[in-house]
Amino acid sequence: MNDIIVLEPVLMEKIWGGSRLKQFGYDTPSDKTGECWGISGHAHGTNVVANGPYKGLTLRQLWEDHRELFANEEGDEFPLLVKIIDAQDDLSVQVHPDDTYAKEHENYAFGKTECWYILDKEPSSELVLGHNASTREELQQMVDDQEWKALFRSVPVEKGDFVYVPSGTVHAIGKGIMILEIQQSSDITYRFYDYGRKDTNGNERDLHIKDSVACSMVPHVDPVLDRSSWKEDGVAIERLIQEHYFTVHKWDINGNVVRENRSYLLMSVIEGTGSVVTEGGTHTLKKGDHFIIPSTVANYEIIGEMKVIVSETTK
């Protein structure tokens, strides 16, 4: 296949979701739409291919049956998941396991390390990022005593910020924040705290205190990020992160960019319009589009004025 893989988004309603995903051109099911899974091979929500010879198949099926599209990378699961999240209300305070804990306790290949590019926020919006306990015993005691305000660490955030959330990080996306999230392809979440909220049936959502305490990084340590920037082949590139599971860049395109393809790339348009050209065809691009340039594409050209988040597994 010498063309890109265009993916149909998967929209998910959430108790904390809103209506702002309509800004990306998505046909949202309600005004409680919290997530768009833009690039996903996960069993809980895999995208359908919208073009080319594999139209109608899922990304999960492509990973299983056409590994040549992904540089013959090994693994039972498509490794990454890219989402856009609209938090109309605070998300639960939660933590995700690492790979070892996920395999032992959930029988799943991946834990969940993730990162966030802040697309938008309200003036008073904050994240929960980390906690104030010095030892696991202190963490357990503060949880037992329900000292939530003293335990959780709130931090301000601005549009354009980038946040790295390795597994074991206590965190919550705050009310009014929109993010693009790149993560390991895992849907395992342990809730510490959920504000006593009730679902549409009047039930409080389950908490997972034992797993949350067991998985949490203690003490919390903020990661140090190196957001390096440079110009290359007519595009201004900023490396947001390069770590064990994924490498993420932001491309600011103003004109045209011609590049040789090294592997397979996950691309999400967060601003602007344009087009992408391969030997297999030309596709228009707009804010909210997600697509994959497979490893079978040797060269490609992107034309327009756009900001694109480019993700790949770290080789």
UniProtKB/TrEMBL annotation:
One Pfam family this sequence matches: MPI_cupin_dom
Keyword flag Lipid metabolism: no
Active site positions, chain numbering: 191
GO molecular function: mannose-6-phosphate isomerase activity; zinc ion binding
Catalytic activity: D-mannose 6-phosphate = D-fructose 6-phosphate
UniProt cofactor(s): Zn(2+)
InterPro entries (UniProt xref): Carb_Metab_Reg_Kinase/Isom, Man6P_Isoase-1, Man6P_isomerase_Firm_short, MPI_cupin_dom, PMI_typeI_cat, RmlC-like_jellyroll, RmlC_Cupin_sf
SUPFAM superfamilies per UniProt: RmlC-like cupins
Annotated family: Belongs to the mannose-6-phosphate isomerase type 1 family.
Name of this chain's protein: Mannose-6-phosphate isomerase
Organism name: Evansella cellulosilytica (strain ATCC 21833 / DSM 2522 / FERM P-1141 / JCM 9156 / N-4)
